[in-house]
Amino acid sequence: MHVQEIMTRDPVCCGRNTDVTEIARIMAKHDCGVVPVLDEDERPVGIVTDRDITIRCVAREEDPRAQHAFDVMTDEVVTIRPDRPAEEAADLMRDRGVRRLLVTDERDNLVGIVSQADLARHAPVEDVGETVREISEPTEAAAATTRA
After folding, report:
1. How many CB atoms lie within 10 A of CB 132?
2. Which of 5, 63, 94, 143, CA to CA, is 20 to 30 A from 123?
3. Is residue 85 within 8 Å of residue 17, measured between CB atoms?
4. Is the pTM of this model over 0.85?
5. How far apart are CA 116 and CA 41, in angstroms?
6. Rounded distance, CA 104 to CA 19, Å?
7. CA-to-CA distance for 49 and 34, rounded, in angstroms?
């Protein structure tokens, strides 16, 4: 099985200057907890999760109308190509400690997202628990975010 078979295609996105209130509206409208951030060339430069909004805006008592994607996004994006095996996506998530990978084409344009849940839905039952546990281990970067 390949990434393109399990990914969410054409996810909703925003730009660096999209305000946090608008990002939250996008999440509510599309029933998602993540919005990739694209540059002017439609290439991913970050990702905003509902947790990013909570930790980097709400918990710091910032005004979400005055905060933008670039203020709250995680700017280290981890990408994979759609033709790569799903097992490689699981390994990459585990190694990098992320729950989602942005799927990009040969021009580095965003074509989808593959999540921990996508892998769990398609993985052999005996592998799901171990994969989810390993991906969910806290990373040093996550720990630093919660301390800030």
Report:
1. 18
2. 143
3. no
4. no
5. 27
6. 24
7. 4
